[in-house]
Amino acid sequence: MGTADVMPGVSGGTIALITGIYERLVHSISKINFKFLKPLFKAQFKESWQIFRKEVDLELFIPLLMGIGIAVLTLSRLMSFLLANYVAFTYAFFAGLIIASTYIVYKEIDGFSVKYFSFGIVGFVFAFIFVGLNPIQANHTLPIIFFSGMLAICAMILPGISGAFILLLINQYEYMINALNSVSISEIITFILGALVGIISFSRLLDYLLQHHEHVTMSFLVGLMLGTLRLPYQKIAVTETNSIIVSAVLGLIAFGIVIIMEKKFRYIDY
């Protein structure tokens, strides 16, 4: 998920879906309501810890956050290099990931209906238009960075919507990559705080939709993921013919990786 989250065009939520932890992740985040803080402020540490353990799925969050953190810190430089020097190849790999992920999400939908198809079309149109937007020339003040963290994290947890791409659109991606590389503490902490506020509030809505309108939500997500293919297509289409062949091979490799991951991890009892 950390690797995907630093890639404009790929969602960490897509990876969570592939590996079978998506619904558990959304539900676990939505359960956090910070009731453990009240006894903590009263120095009732044992009671605070007991409430904290009930609220927070540590068996999920500890390895997940460690993996995301390591990936973001180590791969930000690599992604900057790949996107600067191998744009078409990188986005071809992304496209393979997205197409395979779309197929996996589609399998979650209970048959075909006009209702599901309609929500899929809405998702597709929304993503297709959104991906075609021109970047907004926003500044890099701390309030803007906080708001950027809120927006990006909401996108990161949605399969098909890339948080990194959101940052590109609001002119914060390169700035935050540089902030990570140079370990700019104030910017990093501000972004993380915005992300925490965003994910805790948004996860409640998403958990409700998955619990009560799962197939409609999945249909919308399928449309989102197909719509975001506009971005890798635009990046690949401008390359030379011989590069397109290599891009196609990379896309197929990515597709195969996702299918293998899905078969290996999807039905593991976490």
Automatic annotation (TrEMBL):
- UniProt keyword annotation of Nucleotidyltransferase present: no
Q: What keyword terms does UniProt attach to this protein? A: Membrane, Transmembrane, Transmembrane helix
User: InterPro entries, per this entry?
Assistant: VCA0040-like (IPR007163)
Q: Does the keyword Transmembrane helix apply?
A: yes
One matching Pfam family, short form?
VCA0040-like
Q: Where are the transmembrane segments?
A: 60-80, 86-106, 113-133, 145-170, 182-203, 215-232, 244-261
Stated name of the protein: DUF368 domain-containing protein
Species source reads: Methanobacterium spitsbergense
